[in-house]
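Hello again, I could really use a second opinion on something today. I've been staring at a protein lately and its backbone has me curious. Can you walk me through what the tokens say about the fold? Take your time with it, there's no hurry, and the full record follows here:
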Amino acid sequence: MTQTAAFAPHLGAAIAAGLLICSGLAFQAGAEGAVMRLEDSLGGLAVSGDAQTATSSAARIANREIVPIPAEYTSSFDGTLMTVQDAGDAFLQTPTLAIIIDDVGLDRSATERLLALDIPLTLAFLPYADATSELALAARAAGKDVFLHLPMEPVGLDDPGPHALARHLTADQIGERVRWALARVPGATGFNNHMGSRLTSDAAAMDALFAPLSGQGLVFVDSLTSSESVAGDRAAQAGLRAYRRDVFLDHEIDEEAIDSALSDALARARETGSAIAIGHPHSLTLAALEGLGARAAREGVQLVTIRDLAARES
């Protein structure tokens, strides 16, 4: 099966390792004071093992001031999707599975494990993590697809993080927060929602989100954190290429449950031609992904990034 230019993991991993070292030094020397430093290191997040538990209140998040990002830290995305090179008929006819890993950026060691995996992945970075910009550049150098994991208002009291989109914001305020978030994730080719069970069910809020992004070549994936979500439909109506998540890989953080979810994702790909699965950088999820390339090949499924999926369907 013909491989795409994005599937050059071994060389990419070596480049990424060097970039991590160099960019880390650069950030330590020059980024302080230029990029917003989050309060309490991670904006009120308490990180413990695999779980990242949000502790600051929704009111605190809503009232945070957005700090402008200097031009040198803005996204380098040029508004065009990278096409699948030398795909051929085999790629176009083979069932595909795209895997998104959410919540990337908070845990450097987990991110490095993701970059070392020799399978196509789309990594969705939280914009407020201190190391996000640095690690997003390293991910791009490693041949991974880079997404923004955009915080949105959920149902209930869970905290989506700093600068989350919320229903009380004006359209201008939503646009400002989206621009800030995209600037924090250089090279992002698209985005999906972090939480957002309440906001994604609000058509007016979704229109305010997607309208200014029309024509920029970005892809949107609705994480479907709510059965009431209208996000995918509103994104498509605004002219974005839009997809919906099919399977959550680690809703239950258990080895057998994750293995079963991967089986469901592969089966869905075979049955419908393509599928999108979303997971998180938990140790058990990363371990399951290590053998996924061979497993997918045995089952006749091509692993792809969201960028490849969009190019395939263009």
User: Anything to note?
Assistant: The CA atoms of residues 258 and 285 lie 7 Å apart. The two ends are 20 Å apart (CA to CA). Residues 1-88 have pLDDT under 50 and may be disordered.
